[in-house]
Amino acid sequence: MAKINVLDKEIRLYNIKDDDFISLTDIAKYKNADDPRFVIQNWMRTRFTMEFLGIWEHLNNPGFNRVEFEAVRNESGSNAFVMTPKKWTTLTGAIGIVSKAGRYGGTYAHKDIAFEFASWVSVEFKLYLIKEFQRLKDDERKTLGWDIRRNLAKINYRIHTDAIQQHLIPPTLDKKQTSLVYASEADVLNLALFGMTAAQWRDANPDKEGNMRDEADVTQLVCLSNLENLNALFIAEGASQQERLERLNQIAIHQMTLLAGDKRMRLNEIYRAIRTILQSR
């Protein structure tokens, strides 16, 4: 369960079917730390709140009981009207607000509803809540991006290394010599896509902690994964390293043009650099 801190108040978040729900109980504590349920019930007593919740359910909940909702809305706002989260969901089949028991118990609401409730509690609190929520989402996206990059790098790695082992490494080579073969083939991919070897990248980026693949974007890693698979195929077919490098570079240009057309100029520059390297060999 994720948490954010808003004006020194811990606000819990709960994920339901890939939607973010925010604790109304925690938000209500900003106004009344001793009895947050009372704050939520007061908010739900108003006709405006009932109409807002009804519209949200109309838009997001095919199973919403509109007949019961009309009866609730007609009663809302009167002195005798009382509404609780549990009563609301029981009567109407609402899904935007849920009550949870146990360790992480309390009342949670979809972020759309939670932001509206926070505005009723305090406009200042709502603004800080949105800011911290967005910060959390940005952090999650960065983490997700890292996971995607890390997993993409592994997709065809085994296929590639197996092809090198089977077709390029004689049984007589020692570990050091074997490592040089693997490194050389890795640089075939690096040259084809990035236009430089791993050593050249390190020399050009002494302040970077990782390597060129750590700095690659997702589009480049998709292409790199494809190149690993293709290089394994070309190795099995007996193509020379120079021939494979030329073919892989042309494929990289084509794939990156499709995936990110604005990078075509850069890839053509890489191609010219590779031609120069090949001619000098």
Global Rg: 29 Å
Number of helices: 13
- Taking all residues together, what is the mean pLDDT? 85
Runs in which pLDDT lies below 50 for 5 or more consecutive residues are none
Q: Give a short account of the largest sheet.
A: 5 strands, antiparallel
Overall 3D form? elongated
Strand content: 5-15%
Key phrases:
281 residues, alpha+beta, five-stranded antiparallel sheet, 13 helices, 5 strands, elongated
Describe this structure in words.
The protein is α+β, with helices and mostly antiparallel strands. It folds into two domains: 3-140, no CATH class; 155-280. Helices cover 65% and strands 9% of the residues. It is built from 13 helices and five strands. The protein has helices at residues 24-28, 36-45, 47-60, 66-75, 85-92, 111-121, 123-154, 157-167, 175-194, 198-204, 218-236, 241-259, 264-280; strands at residues 3-6, 9-16, 19-23, 97-100, 106-110. It has a five-stranded antiparallel β-sheet. Strand 4 and strand 5 form a beta hairpin.
